[in-house]
Structures are given as structure tokens and as C-alpha cells.
Amino acid sequence: MTANPGNQPDPALLTTVPTLDMPSHPPGDSLRMKYVRAIGPRLRVVLYLIFGLFALLGANSAYLGSITFLEYLKGLSFQNYFYQLMFLVHLVLGLLLVVPVIVFGVFHAKNSHNRPNRRAVRMGYVLFAAALVLLISGVALMRFDFFAIKDPRLRSPLYWVHVIVPLLCIWLYGLHRLAGPRIRWRVGAKWGVAVVVSVGAMVVLHSADPRRWNVAGPKEGERYFFPSSARTASGNFIPARTLMMNDYCLECHKDTAEGWFHSAHHFSSFNNPPYLASVRETRRVSLQRDGNVRAARWCAGCHDLVPFFSGAFDDPAFDDVNHPTAQAGITCVACHSITHINSTRGNADYTIEEPALYPFTESSDPVLRFVNRTLVKAKPEFHKQTFLKPLHKTAEFCSTCHKVSIPAELTKYKPFLRGQNHHDSFVLSGASGHGARSFYYPPVAKNNCADCHMPLRPSAEFGAKFNDPRPPSRS
Q1: N-to-C CA span, the chain
Q2: Are the C-beta atoms of 55 and 194 separated by less than 8 Å?
Q3: Residue 34 binned pLDDT confidence (cut-offs 50, 70, 90)
Q4: Domain boundaries of the chain, sorted by first residue
Q5: CA 2 to CA 8: how far, in whole Å?
Q6: β partners of residue 144
Q7: The predicted structure's pLDDT at residue 9
Q8: Is the pLDDT of residue 341 over 90?
Q9: How far is residue 87's CA from residue 99's CA, in Å, rounded to a whole number?
Q10: Which contacts (CB < 8 Å, 24+ apart) does range 255-258 have?
Q11: What is the percent of the chain where pLDDT is above 90?
């Protein structure tokens, strides 16, 4: 061994890590072993921004997840306007995180890739990869035009990836930080308590006001619509503008809207000349006989839904040609806003509601309209719950207007006269599989009217449903 004059450190035993934060040492200066942070002042600002956004996003996600779990337990819908706004906040916070996470991940990896603690470095790489998976899955679920995944066979696992990966990121961050400065657990605990308390309070408030599907409207609501059997869920009128949003539906359901435009449903009201002449005569006779046109409500429950449920139909001076609602027919929203089949007696015996809409649905501002469409595409479940319920696929749904009896309030003659009855004819036929007197039985029984009258067809529209192309098996 040789002497070490001046007790100077052996250069061979020193290891330095070059970083942007370390000043250069002129020759002859003594080197001191010093821990150098892998995150410089500028990068630390980005890190604090990520922490702040992630804290807000975590609280927001806890609220959204709690409402979803509550819906699963109760079988009811607890989504309201506030929920949709919170979901919009979720999307905004997620998009704001994209650039900071990528910038921080790239530069942090560049500064620390050759650190001696290889375990911390490897955990950092895995954490960054998990963060990228989280961000990519979130953008994919939003279904932008440039990156839209619509197939439910892909969206479902993608959704669960987006739910599980944040928990994985928290665990990986803990492993990664074991080699760095001490984690401030007290700050995280305070944040957690605040989130639990606030989310718990909001969930309790939501549970007091659920949306109950498939429930008959109040009986007293019939007073506005009798002798039609129709009623509204609230017992009140529905604004005409809400029932006349065909252009809104057209944006995502182009093929469906085109089929509706040329259908008898579209030309069911005063835009149909034979019907116009018939109802004009009914209103004239009713006004002369009863002093009002209420008897004509019997027709309106199936033919004139927009002026009927908005309250304009009862006006004796109603302009059946130039009024904004006169040419509407059976609109998309009117039919899809039916929430309950009160009975299969016909005569419009259903309950209809004013549908709950996403934020900015009726806005004319292009930015707000883009936000609205993004919400619908990113969270279509609420849209489906509102406008496409299981009852819409049943023969009973069609029975409400395709089965008619003429009451005494209309004729002042007999209490009951049978009109057309397509529903019972279908049920008693061989096509339904229930009739024993039919001369024709299809290879496979039809479960509802739409199987024949609305057959599936190829469509590239955004709202098209993925269906199994294979024919059904014989039953």
C-alpha cells in the first residue's frame, strides 16, 4: 500500500452522475460526494402540476365510480346534469394531464437513466409505461374522430384497463419513490379524508333522487290528454323544442334518420293530407258539439305527439299547416322518450317523459356543440338509458298505437268500437309462435314486430350497433 498524502480521496473510488444541475469542476478542485436530485427546478414545476391535476382527477374519479357502483346496486339511474358536468371535468383533467406526463416522463428518464439504483430506474420506466397506457386508453374511450374505437368487444376491456391502471400507477409510484426523498404520507392522508367525506356527501344526495325507468306517470296527468290514454311522467307538458331534435339525432344516426324521413311515422300528422282532412273535421264537429276540440285528442296521442304534449293542440285556433309543430310527425325523440307501456289496450296507453339531455345539447355555439358531442361519444351509456330502453324492442311497445278502440267521448254513440288491431293479429298469428290456427309458420318465430318491419341492414353511421352476422338457430 502506498501513502495517501493529504488524506485526499482516491479518484478511482468516486462515482459522479452528470446532470444539468451539476457545475463543472476545474482541474485540481476537490470532489465531494453529493446526492444530486434527478428533478431540476423546472421539471419540479411540471411534477407539482401533475400532482395537482392527479389529485383533482382522483377525487373526481372517486365520485364517478361511486355513482356507477350505486347504480349497479340499486338498478336505477343516478346520473343527472351535475353528474354530466363532473364527467366533463373528468375529460378535461385527463386531457390536461397528457402533455405534462409525457414531458416529465421523457426528461426525467433522460436525467436519471444511468443512476446507480437500478431498481428505482426500472420502476420508473414501468410507471411511465403504465401512465401512457392510462392516457391512451382514456383518449380511446373518448372516441375522437381520429382515434375512435366503437366495437364493444374492445371498449369493454379498454374501460376496465382505464379503471385498474390508475391503482397500479399509485402502487408503482410508491415503489419508485422508495429510493428518493421521504414521501409525505400526511398530505396524502388529508387528501384521502377530504375525498371520502365529499364523495360520500354527494352520493347520499344522489341516492335521494334516482331516475326510475319503466314507471307509469301519475294518473292525474291524463286530464291534459284524455280521451287519449297517454300521460307524461311528470303530469305536465313537454317543451316542443325537446321533442323536435331530429337534426341533432341526424349527426350520429344518419342512416336511421334517412329511413325515418321517408317513413309513414314521419308523415303521420298534419303533413299527411288524408289525416289532415280527417282531424280538421273531427275538431270542427267537436268544437260545434262540445264547445272544445278535446275529443280530437284521441287522434293526437299517436299522430300529433309534438303539438299534443307541448299543449298547442288544444287551441281551437291552432294552425294545422303553419304552426312550427304541425309538420313534425312522430319525431325521433317523441318515440324514444316513451318510458312505460301502461297496458296493451292501445289508444296511446303509454307514459312519455321530457328526456334528460347532456349539457349544451341545445347550444348553437360550435365549441359547446363539440363538447356536447364529445360527452355523448365518451359516455354513451346515459344516452342509451334515456333513448333506447328494453321496452322499445317489444311488440307491446308497438301495441300502444297499432291497436285502437273508439271511445264514447269521441263518438257519443257506444262506449267501445274496435278499430284497427295489428298487435293482437301478430300475437295470434303463426309468426309470433303463439297462434295455433295459422296456415304459415316461419322457420324461426318472431319475437316482435320490428323483426319483420325493421330488419337489420348494414350501416356505417356512428351510432350503428354491432350485431352478430350469423343467422339465429332454429327454436
Answers
A1: 95
A2: no
A3: low
A4: 41-207, 219-453
A5: 13
A6: 147
A7: 46
A8: yes
A9: 20
A10: 255/457, 255/459, 255/460, 255/461, 255/464, 256/459, 256/461, 256/463, 257/332
A11: 42
C-alpha cell at 214: 319503466
Which tens digits make up the pLDDT trace of 370-417? 999 999 988 888 898 889 888 999 999 999 999 999 988 888 888 888
451 vs 149: which has the higher pLDDT? 451
Please tell me the predicted confidence (pLDDT) of residue 430: 86
Cα 120 to chain centroid distance, Å, stands at: 41
- pLDDT digits over 142-155, tens only? 888 777 777 778 88
- Are the CB atoms for 351 and 215 separated by under 8 Å? yes
Burial class (CB in 10 A: 0-12, 13-18, 19+), 273: exposed
Residue type, 115: R
Q: Which of 377, 387, 438, 443 is nearest to 139 (CA)?
A: 377
Strands 350-352 and 338-341 come out as antiparallel
Calpha distance 461→252 (Å, rounded): 6
CA–CA separation, 447 and 442 (whole Å): 12
Residue 33: name the closest of 17, 51, 50, 52 by CA. 17
User: 171, 25, 177, 52: which is closest to 112 by C-alpha?
Assistant: 177
pLDDT band at 302 (very low <50, low <70, confident <90, very high): very high
Q: Which amino acid is at 371?
A: V
Cell of 352: 312519455
Question: CA 373 to CA 379: how far, in whole Å?
Answer: 10
pLDDT recorded at residue 132: 94
